[in-house]
Amino acid sequence: MSEYLAKTHTNRKYKRGQHMKVHETHLQNVAPLKDISQIERLMAELKNNSGKYGLRNETIAIMGICTGMRISDLLSLRVHDIIDGNGNIVEEFRHIDIKTSHTRHNNKAHTIFIIPECQQALAYYLKNRHSRSVWLFSTSSTSNHKHAPLSTNRYYHIIVNAGMRVGIKTIGTHTLRKTFGYWFYKSTGDIIYLQQLFNHSDIAITRRYIGLEEEKMKRLMFDQFSAQNKS
After folding, report:
1. Distance, C-alpha 90 to centroid of its chain
2. Which stretches make up the Tyr recombinase domain (predicted)?
3. 76 partner at 20 to 30 Å CA-CA among 110, 133, 154, 184?
4. CA angle 16, 157, 204 (to 5 degrees)
5. Which position has the higher pLDDT, 212 or 122?
6. Cα–Cα dist 212/198, whole Å
7. Is 140 exposed, middle or buried (0-12, 13-18, 19+ CB in 10 A)?
8. Residue 72: its pLDDT value, please?
9. Is the Cβ–Cβ distance between 83 and 152 less than 8 Å?
10. Rounded CA gap, 24 and 165, in Å?
């Protein structure tokens, strides 16, 4: 599973469609999943307790954790964005971040890499999904290709409720992106790449975003307490 989370890079290609905003009032309290067992419990809950949309909901989470894409970008994808001419899942594709596409300096397309485990999950999903919409993650179970993609607000509620049921309280759609960042950093130590990927103005922001500052503070407090006990 750690390999499943580690190797990825990201990017953005503007899509027409959804541009909906998630109302995460507790965004500052949303944390990355630092325990593999938490990730596994969340995936199982999304898949097994979401009715006929369980596979869709799980696959969104898998792709979010494996790519670091914002939820609005994930849900704007169409099927043809991730498959080649033979119908196979691509290893990479180009994408522009919806949130920053309107700014002159941040509207360049970058490359999103899809690691083998994520490719397998997407291939299985496309083969077994209920919808045949052009949208990768559709709200409809019909074959009408004009149906809309799942909204960010709807998926926010889906993942928060699933997280609560398995005991994860500090969860939201940003959890997927933060989890990607946390495990990518643990695997590579490349904070500069993450800063650029997340479009942060300062490395300190990136460190806070993926939970490194919280870990540092906790470690310092425990070290201080231990030193006092030894004196």
Report:
1. 18
2. 28-222
3. 184
4. 75
5. 122
6. 15
7. middle
8. 94
9. no
10. 19
Q: Looking at this protein, which amino acid is placed at residue 86?
A: N
pLDDT band at 213 (very low <50, low <70, confident <90, very high): confident
DSSP class per residue in 47-71? HHSSGGGHHHHHHHHHHHHHH---H
What mean pLDDT is predicted for residues 67-75? 94
175 in Cβ contact with 159 (< 8 Å)? yes
Cα(179)–Cα(65) distance, rounded to whole angstroms? 6
For 26, the token pair is 């507790």
Q: Which amino acid is at 47?
A: K
Give strand pairing partners of 149. 138
For residue 6, is pLDDT > 50?
no
Q: How far apart are CA 190 and CA 226, in angstroms?
A: 30
Predicted local distance difference test score (pLDDT) of residue 230: 58
Cβ contacts of 202 within 8 Å, gap of 6 or more = 195
Confidence check: pLDDT of 218 > 60: no
